[in-house]
């Protein structure tokens, strides 16, 4: 019963928190650029407006894929709140990622095709790192279930500092922030238009956006696990991490996928492996 | 309740698509100026998107000529309803100084319906922002009529 | 029970003979259909039986063990002859060595009493089901396929009798292999599959087909040799031919474990593990049903079956770790090689090898969790992979190409085939389907070994990429009122059955686990509650996930099916769309048609460059593995 209530809380609170974080993100970004920026509620206005627009698609696959993307993202957040298995949560999330790519590939648009291929490269980059992070958590807690994390005496961060850094890498890619925003560029008037998102419009774009909020919450939740012993420090960790994300996002130019693959597979995986060896030895 | 939130949101989140239909770039620079910290139109939720499928408002600068009228029409058709069109600068309104050129069709309204005309050569950023605001009013009106 | 076993093994052989000697195509069709139906029924009936070892006394007055021994040498003779015919010294050498060692083994070393020839346990039960049902479906698919195939070739005399002879014989041999309890019988069936695969790969008799079949034969003869050596070493220590007795004894000293190591090596060759992957890749030249059979339910599964069968005999040894690392390496290496491929059958082939590596890795990890993963992977991989092969076969006959770039937008013309293929791909890579569940268990089991888990993590990401882009490119717009796609009944029956099977069995996997796998272990890895598999290390909520994602997907499909009501617009092409979807007005005012290509990351994942490196590494690992056994 408790689990069910938690899941419902997660499903309802997910988009609310995700939307607020997105609004905050834009505010802070504006502040960096000495602008005032949009209201905090802006993302909700955006999505509500999109939901009210005319439905317009290239073909039915886009409708299917947008919905599945949203559902998978929501289910993965639900599983997270149900204290489920980290790997399962991750794989459910991957359902959404795969469908987003497939939907983009269904349209004969050069922009969404290129975006889809690059999105695949992003998956290729972050997936192994995330799996290794989960393995690290398993080595510390003895289980892949989130529930085991809450029983720890010491925050995970103490045992897995390098894995947390690697996670940060993976998150930047997953959130498609600069320098890894090459599958959907931030600003829609660049060479790529909006990459994978180009052909999704109106209500379907809104679905994708809500799914993205869920993903943001999932990612923040993962970070939160690293300081599970103290709520105050957990909040500080999350704030610090996200602030760093925004800073990186605003100070970096977009890089190429080659740069990303090499960087992440060498540096991200390298850090993960070093940290894992440490855990195996310890 | 959700319906009224959507209605309210329409005015709070106008995503614009800027199409240069053969302008001298004077008006374009002014449009982009709106996004700079000085004018910061993101305050009103305005985002400059690059894709008609994501846009609510089409900002067109410059005169229409025989070559690009099809492009203008196509981009307009790819915008989902409800949408508004704002013609910017003397050229966009009427053809401006180029109106007598051999290849010029004229103002934007020769090809697609225009909701707001923003005059000037070039139009001032304040005027453009003003135009967008008026455009949003029209657009709310249109939605109401449709309902 | 004994009748069922004979039915499962001998019926395909008899049916094969009928196909060979009666050249009428109607009789052949009927025989194949009837055999398929009976095999399916028999394998299901076996489920409900008491399992006990079975001794085969004598056949027509000849002691059965003696008969098998004679057949063994006859078989080696036949293979040797083919070695001579194709002037392959390797084949000749390996078979001669095998024959010599085998003679020594049977005449001088073996002096034990009667050993039960067959035994049924959980693993072999599942294997029998896979072989009998999936194998039969593939044979049924082959009926219309081969008809069209031969029409393309313009043969004077149909070679289908021979084709179906070996296809059906294969099924019988596989059933025999997985049911054998006497290691010599196992060896016999092992060799029969080698011969059958050789004949089927070379079936088209083109130059390349013959070349590839010869390669398959020498690699598998090497496997056979390794099997004989392993058998001898194990026997010299244990002193019995009874597999269940060998397994019950567990690892017994360096010599015996080395023997098991050689048996594993034999399994590796059969399962086409790196560096032996080339024979399976070469096997693509054969007609598609052959590839489907080799890749999903027979042949390569014989390889992993051997490794898995002997898992208790090397549990806890260094050999076990070696097997796990070799398997994980194959998983990663083949996934990497697969990224660079655009040939659909090659993608399937590499992904097969990669998945077999995962299964072997699980066998090497050797915990109850890992063994469960291995068995589930065998089952679900067989279903999904055979489905995909049949899909590629159907697509190839429809569009005349097996390149995935040519399949782009397949949905526009062949919506049915495309949809089934997409579902097949999804069952290969996404939760809540069985293959992914197996992979999940493998990852959880592999987390205890750092080398294994790193390779699995990287391989898993690569897998995601090559499947997702294939699934995506099949999707496309379809014009309203386009002509309906026609599919022959015998084509769509296997496709639909497999497609449905992949989904339904995935949903049923908790119960499959509970009734068939859990009894294998003293301490089963999972407890079942509310349709989810729970363990201290993690849980997979199969049924809840199915409900959540399934209902969601149904809703999405429903939303999508109403798409004709919403406004359909062409893709955004900077405003210069022209005519057909995706075409734009380009230079010189002319239309530029849409074209796209996947990123194959040629500079990172070039097959030519990577293969030698991977082969060298794999050889080193195998040497280490065998060395670890000592
Ligand atoms: S109105 Fe003036 S500034 Fe604007 S495009 Fe025309 S000529 Fe240029």
List the helices and strands and how they pair.
The complex is a heterotrimer of chains A (282), B (147) and C (630).
Chain A: H1 2-32, H2 42-51, E1 56-57, H3 60-81, H4 86-105, H5 110-141, H6 146-149, H7 156-159, H8 161-174, H9 202-224, H10 231-251, H11 257-281
Chain B: H1 2-12, E1 15-20, H2 26-33, E2 47-49, E3 57-61, E4 64-65, H3 69-77, E5 84-88, H4 89-94, E6 104-106, E7 116-118, H5 125-146
Chain C: H1 2-21, H2 25-47, E1 58-59, E2 62-63, H3 64-85, H4 89-109, H5 122-153, H6 160-179, H7 183-201, H8 207-238, H9 243-249, H10 253-270, H11 277-282, H12 288-297, H13 300-309, H14 318-339, H15 344-365, H16 368-399, H17 415-429, H18 434-446, H19 450-474, H20 489-517, E3 527-529, E4 532-535, E5 538-540, H21 542-561, E6 567-568, E7 584-585, E8 591-592, H22 607-629
Antiparallel strand pairs in C: 1-2, 3-4, 4-5, 7-8
Helix pairs in contact in C: 1-2, 1-6, 2-5, 3-4, 3-7, 4-8, 5-6, 5-12, 5-16, 5-20, 6-7, 7-8, 8-10, 10-13, 10-22, 12-16, 13-15, 14-15, 14-19, 14-22, 15-16, 15-18, 15-19, 16-17, 16-18, 16-20, 17-19, 17-20
Q: How would you characterize the largest beta sheet of chain C?
A: 3 strands, antiparallel
Q: Most extensive chain contact?
A: A-C, 67 and 64 residues
Return residue spans of chain B where pLDDT drops below 50 for at least 5 consecutive residues.
none
How many discrete structural domains of chain B?
Answer: 1
Q: Structural class, from helix and strand content of chain B?
A: alpha/beta
- In CATH terms, what is the architecture of chain B? 3-Layer(aba) Sandwich
**Roughly what fraction of the amino acids of chain C lie in strands?**
under 5%
Shape of chain C: globular
Helical coverage of chain B, percent range? 25-40%
Mean pLDDT of chain B: 87
């Amino acid at each position: 019963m408790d689990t069910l209530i938690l899941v419902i809380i997660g499903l309802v609170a997910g988009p609310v928190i995700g939307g607020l974080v997105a609004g905050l993100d834009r505010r802070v970004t504006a502040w960096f650029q000495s602008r005032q920026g949009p209201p905090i509620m802006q993302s909700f206005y955006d999505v509500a407006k999109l939901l009210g627009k005319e439905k317009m698609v290239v073909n039915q696959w886009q409708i299917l894929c947008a919905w599945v993307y949203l559902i998978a993202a929501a289910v993965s957040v639900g599983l997270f709140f149900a204290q489920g298995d980290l790997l399962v949560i991750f794989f459910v999330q991957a359902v959404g990622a795969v469908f987003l790519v497939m939907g983009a590939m269904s349209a004969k648009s050069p922009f969404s095709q290129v975006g889809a291929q690059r999105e695949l490269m992003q998956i290729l980059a972050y997936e192994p790192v995330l799996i290794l992070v989960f393995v690290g958590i398993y080595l510390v807690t003895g289980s892949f279930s989130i529930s085991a994390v809450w029983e720890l005496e010491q925050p995970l961060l103490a045992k897995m500092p390098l894995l947390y850094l690697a996670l940060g890498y993976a998150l930047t890619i997953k959130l498609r922030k600069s320098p890894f925003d090459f599958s959907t560029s931030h600003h829609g008037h660049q060479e790529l238009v909006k990459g994978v998102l180009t052909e999704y419009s109106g209500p379907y774009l809104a679905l994708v956006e809500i799914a993205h909020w869920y993903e943001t919450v999932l990612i923040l939740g993962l970070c939160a696990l690293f300081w599970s012993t103290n709520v105050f420090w957990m909040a500080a960790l999350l704030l610090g991490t996200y602030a760093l994300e925004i800073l990186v996002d605003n100070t970096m130019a977009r890089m190429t996928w080659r740069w990303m693959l090499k960087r992440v597979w060498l540096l991200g995986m390298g850090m993960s492996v070093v940290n894992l060896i440490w855990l195996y030895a310890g | 309740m959700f319906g009224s939130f959507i209605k309210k949101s329409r005015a709070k989140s106008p995503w614009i698509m800027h199409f240069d239909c053969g302008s001298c770039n004077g008006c374009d620079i002014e449009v982009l100026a709106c996004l700079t910290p000085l004018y910061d139109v993101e305050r009103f939720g305005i985002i400059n998107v690059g894709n008609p499928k994501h846009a609510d408002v089409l900002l067109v600068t410059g005169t229409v000529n025989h070559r690009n009228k099809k492009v203008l029409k196509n981009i307009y058709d790819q915008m989902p309803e409800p949408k508004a069109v704002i013609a910017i600068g003397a050229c966009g309104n009427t053809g401006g100084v180029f109106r007598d050129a051999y290849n010029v069709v004229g103002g934007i309204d020769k090809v697609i319906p225009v909701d707001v005309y923003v005059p000037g050569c070039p139009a001032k950023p304040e005027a453009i922002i003003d135009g967008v605001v008026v455009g949003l009013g029209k657009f709310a009106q249109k939605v109401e009529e449709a309902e | 029970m004994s009748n069922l076993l004979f039915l499962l093994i001998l019926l395909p052989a008899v049916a094969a003979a009928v196909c060979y000697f009666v050249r009428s195509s109607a009789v052949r069709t009927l025989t194949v259909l009837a055999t398929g139906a009976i095999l399916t029924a028999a394998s299901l009936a076996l489920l409900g039986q008491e399992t006990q070892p079975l001794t085969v006394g004598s056949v027509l007055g000849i002691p059965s063990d003696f008969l098998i021994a004679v057949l063994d040498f006859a078989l080696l003779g036949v293979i040797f002859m083919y070695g001579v015919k194709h002037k392959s010294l390797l084949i000749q050498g390996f078979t001669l060595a095998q024959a010599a060692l085998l003679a020594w083994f049977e005449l001088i070393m073996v002096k034990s009493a009667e050993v039960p020839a067959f035994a049924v346990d959980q693993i072999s039960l599942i294997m029998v089901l896979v072989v009998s049902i999936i194998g039969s479906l593939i044979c049924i698919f082959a009926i219309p396929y081969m008809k069209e195939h031969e029409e393309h070739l313009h043969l004077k005399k149909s070679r289908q009798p021979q084709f179906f002879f070996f296809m059906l014989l294969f099924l019988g041999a596989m059933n025999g292999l997985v049911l054998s309890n006497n290691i010599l019988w196992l060896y016999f069936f092992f060799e029969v599959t080698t011969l059958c695969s050789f004949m089927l790969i070379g079936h088209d008799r083109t130059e390349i087909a013959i070349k590839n079949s010869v390669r398959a034969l020498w690699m598998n003869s090497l496997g056979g040799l390794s099997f004989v050596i392993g058998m001898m070493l194990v026997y010299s220590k244990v002193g019995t031919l009874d597999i269940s007795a060998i397994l019950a004894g567990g690892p017994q000293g360096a010599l015996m474990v080395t023997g098991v190591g050689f048996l594993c090596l034999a399994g590796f060759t059969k399962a086409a593990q790196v560096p032996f992957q080339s024979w399976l890749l070469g096997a693509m030249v054969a007609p598609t049903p052959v590839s489907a059979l080799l890749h999903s339910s027979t042949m390569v599964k014989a390889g992993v079956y051997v490794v898995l069968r002997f898992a208790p005999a090397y549990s806890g040894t260094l050999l076990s770790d070696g097997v796990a690392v070799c398997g994980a390496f194959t998983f990663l290496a083949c996934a990497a090689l697969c990224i660079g491929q655009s040939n659909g059958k090659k993608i399937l082939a590499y992904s097969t090898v990669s998945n077999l590596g995962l299964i072997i890795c699980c066998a090497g990890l050797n915990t109850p969790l890992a063994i469960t993963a291995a068995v589930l992977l065998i089952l679900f991989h067989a279903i999904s992979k055979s489905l995909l092969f049949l899909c590629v076969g159907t697509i190839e006959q429809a569009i005349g190409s097996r390149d995935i770039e040519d399949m782009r937008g397949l949905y526009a013309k062949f919506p049915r085939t495309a949809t089934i293929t997409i579902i097949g791909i999804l069952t290969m890579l996404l939760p809540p389907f069985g293959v992914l569940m197996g992979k999940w268990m493998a990852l959880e089991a592999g987390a205890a070994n750092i080398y294994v888990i790193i390779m699995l993590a990287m391989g898993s990401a690569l897998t995601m990429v090559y499947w997702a882009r294939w699934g995506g490119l099949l999707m496309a717009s379809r014009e309203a009122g386009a002509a309906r796609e026609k599919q022959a009944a015998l084509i769509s029956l296997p496709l639909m059955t497999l497609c449905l099977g992949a989904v339904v069995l995935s949903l049923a996997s908790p119960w499959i686990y509970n009734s068939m796998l859990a009894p294998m272990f003293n301490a089963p890895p999972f407890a079942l509650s509310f349709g989810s598999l729970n363990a201290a290390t993690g849980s997979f909520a199969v049924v809840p996930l199915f409900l959540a994602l399934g209902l969601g997907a149904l809703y999405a499909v429903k939303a999508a099916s109403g798409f004709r009501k919403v406004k359909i617009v062409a893709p955004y092409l900077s405003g210069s769309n022209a005519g057909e979807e995706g075409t734009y007005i380009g230079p010189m005012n002319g239309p530029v048609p849409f074209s796209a290509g996947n990123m194959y990351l040629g500079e990172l994942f070039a097959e030519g460059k990577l293969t030698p490196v991977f082969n060298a590494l794999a050889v080193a690992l195998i040497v280490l593995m065998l060395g670890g056994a000592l």
